[in-house]
Write a structure and sequence with these properties.
- Helix content is 57%, strand content 9%.
- It has 3 domains: 3-121 and 212-309 and 339-407, Alpha/Beta hydrolase fold, catalytic domain (Rossmann fold, 3-Layer(aba) Sandwich); 133-196, no CATH class; 425-636, no CATH class.
- 45% of the residues are buried.
- The termini are far apart.
- The chain has 669 residues and is an alpha/beta fold.
- The protein has 26 helices and 12 strands.
């Protein structure tokens, strides 16, 4: 049900907004001392009513010791989606709270802007939103069009955008695979995290806000209506204009930012579903602070520039106040700049620094926000990448900084800092998961081969006694092979002007292979190597020991597989098929020579099954490595955003930001 219909059910007279507001003001008991309204705006996904505002209120209530009780959802519940209410914290009459603490708690009121029902109804209709993979490909197409339009001296080729399209397909595919793996961890009682719904909800909500004007305008109008009613409600009950503080998460930051800009540039907004209903946007005069967590505003500014055009945002300072002289409907005067603070974790796939947003505001001549570079707070505070997007709600350090810096005006507020080992662990987790799958892949085929061999006559007791050591050694070689084969396929590393990049990434790939091969050589016992590939010594008739020949055979096989990845087509899906196919060929060759003559009285099917499981687990490991590399290279390190920013704002290709630098002159400087 849309905002208008729900408002009609709850208020019965939504078109007469002032009458409804007055009725609400008379019926809702709010203490006269309420002076600050904290408004929560949720992000992506299928949200519960009042869950976001409860999370915010809980963080405020836990600021002092002992913390105030966490109230149930029913405490914050209101009659309808379009209606408003303000709830206060449950502050007991007694307790060890100081007069200052009581004064702080007593002035607070909490409310929520709820909009999840609008995308939920669209999803139920199942005839509007585009499938995630197809929509992602359209984003790549838009990026290519922006590149061709804005950049004159081009270094990218159509094949590079084809690679990007392939990566998008791969991400969707890999997320589905990882969701299956996470289901296993949930059943094992390790942890629960629904990764696939995060992607699905994010893509769906972003589509709705960015591409569907009717639905976007409906959501933003609801935002304005709730904000106006909240300000009118508290003003009527308390006989004073309140201070308003917005706390927005994820896509909710885009909606609230759009709403604020609309309020700054025009004096009223129109209901897109009822053109006769027009409401004032003067509530923005009460806005004092804006907190964004996990915000994707920069992506929207770069990918959907039309959303931010035709807004009269030019400001001027007069007697310490901020005026917007070009505002439709008359000059708007703000008593002070809106204090904006942005928080994002480096492991959050959605939230980033908002450099482009600041550049947009500067270009528009808008000084209404106190939002400098130093007000963008990035950190590594959460363990799991991806899940970091939802961890802000339970992080007292983030909320306490906003409270102290913005609401209390304390100059010594301590910003949220990195937590020990979080950044390293968050970065390492996907690669460790990939390595674990490499271990599983090796175990499947190793166990099948050793179980099908005549261990006694081969002198291979160490193959059973040192199972873990052998599997680890072979997995190191396989992991090094995967990294060496995949890295050159996942980067822009060719062209007449990119010789340094071509060399840099291939050296990085060779180093990765060298590390894996060295660990393999040092860890694998000679008798195990002789057992696994020693028969090749009889073929080559070399004077070297069979154990050395065995190790060389595995290293040579790894080199063949890695090189096949270098010359594979620059499409992730085809590249994986090539190296998995070459790996299958090498596996058949090594296993076939090892078992030649030993299968007269032994069934072959366990070896075939083990080989198939090996290929499947290895394929999963490659998928996860690709996703992790793309994530860290292009998303976490903001290479993709920096590239789009350079295209649109500077009209040039982005400067390379290599992880491994080989330019000695630049390093010396």
């Amino acid at each position: 049900m849309d905002a208008a219909s729900r408002g009609t059910e709850g208020g019965r007279g939504e078109r007469a907004a002032s009458a409804v507001d007055a009725a609400i003001a008379c019926n809702v008991p709010i203490a006269p001392r309420v002076q600050k309204i904290v408004v929560a705006i949720h992000g992506i996904g299928n949200q519960l009513h009042s869950d976001t505002v409860r999370s915010v209120a809980s963080q405020f209530g836990s600021r002092y010791d002992p913390p105030l009780p966490v109230m149930p959802l029913g405490y914050f519940d209101i009659a309808g989606v379009g209606e408003v209410d303000v709830r206060q914290l449950d502050l007991p009459e007694g307790g060890p709270y100081t007069a200052e603490q009581r004064a702080f708690y007593s002035t607070l009121g909490f409310a929520e802007v709820y909009w999840a029902d609008i995308p939920r109804e669209v999803v139920k209709q199942d005839d509007t939103l585009e499938e995630s993979k197809a929509w992602g490909l359209s984003i790549v197409s838009r990026a290519q069009a922006a590149y061709m339009l804005n950049v004159s001296e081009r270094k990218l080729e159509p094949a590079d955008f084809s690679l990007a399209a392939g990566v998008v397909e791969e991400i969707v595919e890999t997320v589905a695979v990882m969701q299956s793996l996470l289901a296993v961890t949930e059943k094992a009682g390790i942890f629960k995290f629904d990764l696939a719904p995060v992607l699905r909800d994010y893509v769906g909500d972003v589509q709705l806000v960015a591409d569907f004007k009717q639905h976007r305008d409906t959501i933003v109008f609801r935002f304005h209506r709730v904000m106006k009613r909240l300000v009118d409600l508290v003003t009527t009950r308390c006989n004073c204009a309140p201070e308003v503080y917005l706390i927005a998460h994820s896509e909710g930051t885009v909606i609230s930012f759009l709403g604020i800009l609309h309020a700054l540039s025009q004096s009223c907004v129109q209901d897109p579903r009822d053109k006769k209903q027009v409401i004032s946007t003067d509530w923005v005069k009460c806005l004092r602070g804006f907190m964004t967590i996990g915000s994707p505003i920069d992506k929207h500014v770069l990918l959907w520039p039309d959303l931010w055009r035709n807004m009269a945002l030019t400001t001027r300072e007069t007697d310490g106040a901020i005026e917007l002289p070009d505002r439709t409907g008359g000059v708007l005067r703000l008593g002070s700049r809106i204090k904006w603070r942005n928080y994002y974790d480096f492991g959050d796939p959605v939230g980033f620094a908002l450099d482009t947003t600041r550049a947009y505001l500067d270009a528009a001549g808008c000084k209404a926000f106190e939002f400098e570079d130093r007000h963008d707070y990035g950190f590594a505070r959460y363990w799991l990448p991806g899940k970091a997007h939802t961890e802000y709600w339970t992080d007292a350090g983030v909320f306490n900084h906003f409270i102290e810096d913005v609401m209390l005006g304390e100059s010594d507020a301590v910003p949220p800092r990195n937590r020990r080992a979080r950044g390293f662990v968050s970065t390492a987790i996907p690669y460790l998961l990939s390595f674990a799958l490499h271990l599983a892949a090796v175990f499947f085929v190793y166990k099948a081969v050793t179980a099908s061999s005549d261990a006694d006559s081969s002198g291979s007791e160490a193959a059973f006694i040192h199972l873990t050591r052998s599997v680890f050694a072979l997995a190191c070689l396989l992991m090094g092979t995967t990294v060496a084969a995949r890295i050159p396929r996942l980067v822009k590393a060719r062209g007449a002007t990119r010789t340094d990049a071509w060399l840099r990434w291939r050296v990085a790939a060779l180093v990765a292979f060298g590390v894996g091969a060295l660990l393999f050589w040092l860890v694998l016992r000679p008798d195990v190597a002789e057992f696994l590939a020693g028969p090749f010594g009889d073929i080559v008739h070399d004077r070297m020991q069979d154990s050395i020949v065995g190790k060389l055979v595995f290293v040579a096989a790894g080199i063949c597989v890695a090189l096949s990845g270098w010359f594979a087509p620059r499409r992730p899906r085809w590249g994986r098929r090539v190296i998995v196919g070459m790996g299958a060929l090498m596996t058949v060759l090594i296993v076939g020579v090892r078992l030649w003559g030993d299968l007269e009285d032994t069934a072959l099917w366990p070896v075939v099954l083990g080989g198939l499981l090996f290929l499947y687990a290895w394929w999963l490991a490659i998928l996860i490595f690709d996703l992790a590399f793309v994530w860290h290279r292009y998303v976490r390190n903001s290479v993709a955003l920096d590239t789009l920013r350079a295209w649109r704002l500077q009209g040039r290709d982005a400067q390379p930001r290599p992880i491994v630098r080989m330019n000695r002159q630049r390093k010396a400087r």
